[in-house]
Amino acid sequence: MKVAIIGGTGYGAIELIRFLYNHPYTEIEAIISHSQSGERLDSVYPHVTDLVIEPLETLNIDQLAERVELVFFATPPGISKKLAPGFLAKRIKCIDLSGDFRLKSSQVYQDWYQGSAAEQQYLDLAVYGLSEIYTEEVKNAELIANPGCYPTASLLGLIPALNHGMVDPQSIIIDAKSGVSGAGRSTSLNTHYPEMNENLKAYKLGQHKHIPEIEQALQIEAGKELKVAFSTHLVPMTRGIMSTIYVNAIEEISTKEVIEAYTAFYDGHPFVRVRREGELPATREVYGSNFCDLGFYSDQRTGKLTIVSVIDNLVKGASGQAVQNMNLLNGWEPSTGLNYLPIYP
Amino acid sequence: MKVAIIGGTGYGAIELIRFLYNHPYTEIEAIISHSQSGERLDSVYPHVTDLVIEPLETLNIDQLAERVELVFFATPPGISKKLAPGFLAKRIKCIDLSGDFRLKSSQVYQDWYQGSAAEQQYLDLAVYGLSEIYTEEVKNAELIANPGCYPTASLLGLIPALNHGMVDPQSIIIDAKSGVSGAGRSTSLNTHYPEMNENLKAYKLGQHKHIPEIEQALQIEAGKELKVAFSTHLVPMTRGIMSTIYVNAIEEISTKEVIEAYTAFYDGHPFVRVRREGELPATREVYGSNFCDLGFYSDQRTGKLTIVSVIDNLVKGASGQAVQNMNLLNGWEPSTGLNYLPIYP
Amino acid sequence: MKVAIIGGTGYGAIELIRFLYNHPYTEIEAIISHSQSGERLDSVYPHVTDLVIEPLETLNIDQLAERVELVFFATPPGISKKLAPGFLAKRIKCIDLSGDFRLKSSQVYQDWYQGSAAEQQYLDLAVYGLSEIYTEEVKNAELIANPGCYPTASLLGLIPALNHGMVDPQSIIIDAKSGVSGAGRSTSLNTHYPEMNENLKAYKLGQHKHIPEIEQALQIEAGKELKVAFSTHLVPMTRGIMSTIYVNAIEEISTKEVIEAYTAFYDGHPFVRVRREGELPATREVYGSNFCDLGFYSDQRTGKLTIVSVIDNLVKGASGQAVQNMNLLNGWEPSTGLNYLPIYP
Amino acid sequence: MKVAIIGGTGYGAIELIRFLYNHPYTEIEAIISHSQSGERLDSVYPHVTDLVIEPLETLNIDQLAERVELVFFATPPGISKKLAPGFLAKRIKCIDLSGDFRLKSSQVYQDWYQGSAAEQQYLDLAVYGLSEIYTEEVKNAELIANPGCYPTASLLGLIPALNHGMVDPQSIIIDAKSGVSGAGRSTSLNTHYPEMNENLKAYKLGQHKHIPEIEQALQIEAGKELKVAFSTHLVPMTRGIMSTIYVNAIEEISTKEVIEAYTAFYDGHPFVRVRREGELPATREVYGSNFCDLGFYSDQRTGKLTIVSVIDNLVKGASGQAVQNMNLLNGWEPSTGLNYLPIYP
User: Per the UniProt record, which residue ranges are transmembrane (chains A, B, C, D) (predicted)?
Assistant: First the structure.
């Protein structure tokens, strides 16, 4: 199957290219870059020297629709909502790594994204691609809204607990920490090496765009409105997200029981690994891979359950999950082209 | 004033030596090291080459009590409880950087430290040296229990809110993150560079020894029993602690009002800096210094107040605060020998 | 083909397992660990949870020789010289990642390794597995001495220049820099995170065991005795080696000419990438991959040629090259199971 | 003494402010920033919150000359050559941290800096402020050209060997490595955190502007023309420079003899620390301090002497040495306001 990547020079795209390069059933037909068309990818990313040598292209939807069956958008906010409809009209499947189609309510989108949402019909059409949870919906989707990095880690950690009625949906606090690659490749003082090295920063407390995305998904599980307290931090490392999640247990439950419930919930989903009692996952343990590892501590003193969820933000939090969704969409084994060990150390 | 440092080769001691080296009113008379006595400090720490050249000594309490007026303990758990009484009997003031004298209840100590507590008379005698809060008590102390690193950051962030009755004392969640120097100089797989670099680890959820220390101090403010949910994480950096604290506001309060209340509370205490609305402190902004910086976000959506507190774990979280306490004890200006800008970048 | 790994819990082994896990023609039949036999690998390395679940075994040569066709040694110095003969006697091929069989002269081995060398017949038997240079010899080997990490980077950078008679063999200076994983998984003060982070250390100037290995290979090319000045440095990163090499050009030569000569030399060897004029390789550009990237600057002012050679020390500098040698040995495409893009960022 | 800093928002300035803040004999009267005048420094650098609160000013030479006795230039290339003459005309002493006045030959300046040099009379007037070497000249200077970071580390490492006629001046190779703060505060893809973290980069081989500065100083010592091979590398750390220097010994000399010669040479210069035989300095051992530490290895096998020189690039390589020069200029103890222990870890 031939595919195209639009927005070819960001970190999302380059990680997509890494996985597609070895995917047995797909071929990258075109890499589209508005800003650097005509150049070769290896002049932008020297690590692909000799390996990915076709020039970056400008976008021509009509032409591209003839050449490929599926398009990945790894574009900044506001681009895919304009371009995806053109592809969909030609029955080209679209997987969007940006936030343009994740929120069902255009009002909520406008409140949090400070811009106008995609047309409602596309918001309705889009399937939220949290692969382990919406597996069946993804299989039949035309347009997939690939989840955000923080929501992926947070939702995979929380949904089973809500689904089992184990915790109070009104009590959710998510303390999320991310490596700096999550901020993308655009330079800023904030991500300038001497400002970020040997430093730990909190940012956008209670104001991150991923909040409505998390709440939307959790409300479905809880069956009612809820709000989450959500904080984000930048950690001096390149890759990795950890969400440390605090919820009130509805009744006393042991760490062991929680682990059993989660193990059962994720049975048949190899990319979520429920870790043993006493083990807490570290971000390095999923580095470069599509795994989401979950650890638990149920505190009898406070009645709170703490859930630790880690992913590689560029893989399970972006491009790996996009490939997993492509696999589902095509009826392939979900782990096709993703079945690698994490890189350690 | 002549002082001695016992436990002279850990990170706490070496940071103490850094500040005492330039302190105008003190002189380091002796550095005691059980494991490396006879050696020169610069063979253990080459960065002091040519600067601190006296040999490390073995401990002789009687002799040392003749030579110094004050002793700092920068020893592992369980040492100072044995040694401090000998100095106190000779009216030598003691500042203990370990946890031996921090908890008033010997039962609580045993529950969390898995060892027997110091004698009750010394637990009673010890003043908890959180300098900004117990300023007056410290001035008259004989034995100071210098606070732990996590408690210092957490308590300075929480006490004003409890003191003002602004938040529900039963709702406290502290998500704490530390640089790796907090684990000390003893090697372990956990702190081996390739295991810790480009990694983020959660550890000891709900089980850290600093929990009872935090609860003990907060209960005094709240006037009742309370439990805190407390999680700790290792961040790939050497220095710095950030406590991100979540509490339920008792009634609606704006970030601005919180800032005003904290500014008033810490008036006259230059080492606590209440940051402006919209600013969140980063650990690097207090690097190498004795400051504790506080930032706030009061979320009207969730009714929760988030407090971000940062310190340098080796300074305000250990040796800097010990020097500040020594200053208070002697009636000197609290900032004597500590009045430096943070090192940035 | 079934293979075994002896010394299964070091970084060399775990990286070998990463590549073999996806290798199309091999299966890991046994992982041998003296120190942790009986345990599962994922209790030592949690990142393989659910993926590599067989218990670590103790070594029984007779039994193992029945089960496998090839053995990798990822053992500390001095082990393989004792064990490999037993396997060789049973016609099991051996690839040794340690230094035991790299030096042809047992006297030189003793001078640099401070221990007795393997028996001379095995030193004679061993083929030095620098894959691009000794391709044919490796294909027919029984025992492969897989090169050291520094020698791999240094020799791939130097051999073409010597081979072409471009530079003075007596003028070689190699300034080598390594990530900390090169020091292995054993803890030490030197590799303790707070000692190594935000630090750069020179070590073992002129005394590293890799010196005779480099000289032995270069003398073959130069056709005469030579000595290299070789320095090593630890850089605060986990993976990557850079050798910056200084040699005197025999006659004036442009950077462009050097690049042409190297490009021709490495034609047909995809893992060595000769970078374009004006480009210097960075270690991250080969991260996690089996590439060796080379950059050049021929300085007309000084008459010196500077060669910059980068590898991932754990891949091309150890386990990746071992797999490449296994491929050659079996007549498979050299890039089998190694054909991945570097991980960036 | 009142001083002004021009170019107040770069890393050079902020480090100057750190030292001047505690300097006993000086007061910062004005901080000039073209780009951010009117703002407070703590809105640019939050770590000085509550500490440095005067607004940044625009430059008015006439007015400023009334208020201060000395001006520091921490400006980008090409600024001080225009501004310093105005101050000098009013007999205000100038210390320039940029490269504008370092080269005596305007032709050499133009060749390497690609711009026109300062007027020859100012190039002649300027004293090259390598404090330990040109101590007497600095004491009487009106205009001081503060040395570059790489030249400081390299020259302090090399000059005694040349001065003693110990090594061949035509054989000098300097392999220099720097932390990222040396690239300044302006953002670039090169210094974007995810591009620089866990990475090691060579850059500007044989083309760095510091080459003519090094050669100019060495030629004076050698008494003849010479060229150095000089390479630069970016290391994933914020602070620190290491120059690993290779020279041919003129006759056999032991490491011990080298150390004795250097110790004698730097007698009375406390900021250069000659390390013991067998010890090699690491950059962290001078972190935040004005020390330059030197280590040696004389290799009898190759006849080469290797010199390892480390400094903190922002201190001895910039602002610390500027303060040291100010002290010399005023007849104060050279270590005034600089007499601190390095920060470790």
Answer: none
- pLDDT of D8 above 90: no
Q: From the CB of residue C279, how many other CB atoms can be counted at a distance below 10 Å?
A: 18
Tokens of C285: 């550009």
Contact yes or no for A297 and B206 at CB 8 A = yes
Cβ atoms of D127 and D216 within 8 Å: the answer is no
Q: Is the pLDDT of residue B8 over 90?
A: no
- For tokens 């050299």, name the residue: C334
Phi, psi of C110 (to 5 degrees): -65, -35
The rounded mean pLDDT for chain C is: 97
Kindly report, residue by residue over A189-243, the tens digit of the pLDDT: 999 999 999 999 999 999 999 999 999 999 999 999 999 999 999 999 999 999 9
Catalytic residue among A5, A68, A149, A247: A149
- Is the pTM for the entire model greater than 0.95? yes
B195 CB neighbours in chain A (<8 A) are 284, 345
d(CA A154, CA B209): 28
Mean pLDDT score across all residues of chain D: 97
The pLDDT tens digits for B280-291 are: 999 999 999 999
Distance of alpha carbon B119 from alpha carbon B82, whole angstroms: 9
CB contact under 8 A, B199 and A282: yes
What mean pLDDT do residues D264-283 have? 98
> Which tens digits make up the pLDDT trace of B13-50?
999 999 999 999 999 999 999 889 999 999 999 999 99
Residue A54 is predicted with a pLDDT of 87
The nearest CA of chain B is from the CA of A285 a distance in Å of: 8
Q: What is the rounded distance in angstroms from the CA atom of residue A14 to the CA atom of residue A23?
A: 14
- Ranges in chain A, pLDDT < 70: none
C-alpha to C-alpha distances, C192 to A155, B180, C197, C199, C234, nearest whole angstrom: 35, 9, 8, 11, 12
Report phi then psi at A85, rounded to 5: -55, -40
B-contacting chains (≥3 CB pairs under 8 Å): A, C, D
Can you tell me the ipTM of this complex? 0.97
- Predicted confidence at residue B21, as pLDDT, reads 98
- Count CB-CB contacts under 10 A for residue A73: 29
Residues of chain D with C-beta less than 8 angstroms from the C-beta of C283: 199-201
DSSP string, B90-126: TT-EEEE-SSTTT-S-HHHHHHHHSSPPPPHHHHHH-
DSSP helix/strand/coil, B40:
strand
- Distance CA(C1)–CA(C3), nearest Å, equals 6
Q: What domains does chain A contain, in order, with CATH numbers?
A: 2-125 (3.40.50.720), 150-313 (3.30.360.10)
Q: Mean pLDDT over residues D138-159, rounded?
A: 98
Burial B198-212 (b: 16+ CB within 10 A, else e): bbbbbbebbebbbbb
* Gap between the Cα atoms of D291 and D341, Å rounded: 9
- Kindly state the helix (H) or strand (E) to which residue A229 belongs, with its residue range: strand A229-234
Angle at C217 between CA C214 and CA C222, to 5 degrees: 110
3-state helix, strand, coil in chain D (%, to 5): 35, 20, 40
Phi and psi, residue C198, nearest 5°: 50, 45
Q: Is D224 left (phi over 0), alpha (psi -120 to 50) or beta?
A: beta
CA D216 to chain centre: 15
Nearest to B212 by CA among B296, B145, B163, B167: B145
Which of A192, A234, A239, A314 to substitute to test the interface with D, most D CBs within 10 Å?
A: A192
Alpha-carbon distance B194 to B211, whole Å? Answer: 30
Where residue D195 falls among pLDDT bands split at 50, 70, 90?
very high
- H/E run at residue A161: helix A149-163
